[in-house]
Amino acid sequence: MKKSTCIPLMVEPRRQISFRCFLSSILLLSAVFFIGSAFIITDYKEKYLSCGSSDNMQNTRSKMCESQSMPQGSESLPKGIVSKNSDLKMRPLWGPMDKKNSKSFTNLLAIAAGIKQKESVNKIVKKFLSSDFVVMLFHYDGVVDDWRDLDWSNRAIHVSAINQTKWWFAKRFLHPDIVAEYAYIFLWDEDLGVENFDVGRYLTIIKEEGLEISQPALDANKSEVHHHLTARDRRSKVHRRTYKMIGRRRCNENSTEPPCTGWVEMMAPVFSSASWRCAWHMIQNDLVHAWGLDFQLGYCVQGDRTKNIGIVDSEYIVHYGLPTLGASVTNKKVAETPNQSAQDTSSSAGPQAASRSNQSDGRTGVRTRSYIELEIFKNRWKKAVREDYCWVDPYQKPAAKKTVEKLIAEDIHRITHRH
What we know:
Elements: H1 2-67, E1 107-113, H2 118-129, E2 133-139, E3 157-160, H3 166-173, E4 184-188, E5 192-193, H4 199-209, E6 213-218, E7 238-239, E8 245-246, E9 249-250, E10 270-272, H5 273-282, H6 305-308, E11 309-319, H7 328-336, H8 338-343, H9 350-387, H10 404-418
Parallel strand pairs: 1-2, 1-4, 2-3, 6-11
Antiparallel strand pairs: 4-10, 5-11, 6-10, 7-11, 8-9
Helix pairs in contact: 7-9
């Protein structure tokens, strides 16, 4: 009996120990599971958040790149290597840059020049050289070498094309991206007298007055003056309008359009960089005389044309009005062949008469072509205004304004009746 009662007392503690060990193992495994899960979840979250952050960064970068404006044709290049603008500064072929020529030129003088006006052009250029100007000559007669004896000739840029106008050259060689570095562009004729003109004072005045497009006033006693607005007013430093009777129109303080206000003539215009960018786009590639352009320049003055276009009276010039276009190349050819003309016994007038005849024919042709171009330009302007429904004329009188809907209705009516 004693043995039977002893055995159960020995077995019971062993079962309890086994159960406790089993329970501890389960708890330990559970702890390991939960701790491991926590690490896994944390790692997953980090990876997920990292991935999401990367996507957000990618989206942000994509949006930023979409808004980044790149010049057409340069989209495949990194932005930092793209050089959008240029200039007319000449660079050395080798060695260190010459300090004498390394300074930055801030303005540009471009002149259409023939060799017959060499003396006049020389006087003009000398006025500008001391004021940090790049000088560019457009040789419409093809003569370049005969300018080499002038001390500034090697510093000037020479462009030559036979029988082309100032505006032909400007459209092709003064692209806004090329001249963007220059604050002001002086696009002048060759037949100007500058004895009473100081370019430094002129620049100061147009900056103070906020003139985007301007010209020096004309000395009415010595100049060929075509419009009252450009004649010098001795009583003022700058004027922006005339009060004269022009045709049947009386110009007054309420006038808002050319030729009463907001206008310059085309022999000596001065453009700010911003106004030139606009004006260049308005120059028609095939209309070389640019007649009619002057009446629309007010749309390029970055604001009110009655305020931002002006005539500077205190710095004035003389316009001689020499009819050089259409004669220079013909004259040169006649002068080169005097023997041939002398041998022509059928002509009693000789080479001088032939020269005068050729000059007259050329100048008449230039004048006729100019009027034709004027009508073409006016018609193109009207057509552009009519067809551009998004464009709003800032100078159109309120009573005459048309709504977009009305313009569209008129166009539909016209197309319908055409077919």
